[in-house]
Design brief:
The chain is mainly alpha-helical and 119 residues long. Helices cover 82% and strands 0% of the residues. It contains four helices and no strands. One of its GO terms (biological process) is phosphatidic acid biosynthetic process.
Amino acid sequence: MRNQPKYNFFKNTKYALDGLCEIYGKESSFRIEIYIIVPLIIVSFFLPTSLNLHIALIVSLIFVLFAECVNSAIERCVDLCTRDIHPLAKAAKDAGSAAVFLSIVIAAIVWVLTLWTLL
C-alpha cells in the first residue's frame, strides 16, 4: 500500500506551491530562469503574432521551468539515496541536466523562428 494521503485539490495545490517555493529558494538556476522567462512572457504580449504562436512562445518558456523542477526532484532523490560519488548517481543527475538543456534549446528555437518570421 502506498503512503499517500487522500486526494484533496487544495492540499495538493499547496504541496505544488510549496515545491515551487522550495526550488525557487534553493536553486539559483531556477531563479535565473525565472528572471529571464518572466520578462520574455511580458514581451511576448507585445509581439504581433497569432494566438497559436503566442501560446507556443509561452509554453516553450514554461517547459524550461518544468524541466528544471524535474531535474531538481531527481537531484534531491539521488542525494537522499547516497552522498557518495557513484557513476549511476552522476548519470541520473546528468540526465536531468540534459532535460533542462534540451528544453532551453527548444525554447530558443521557438523564439528565434518566431522573431525571424516577424522581420
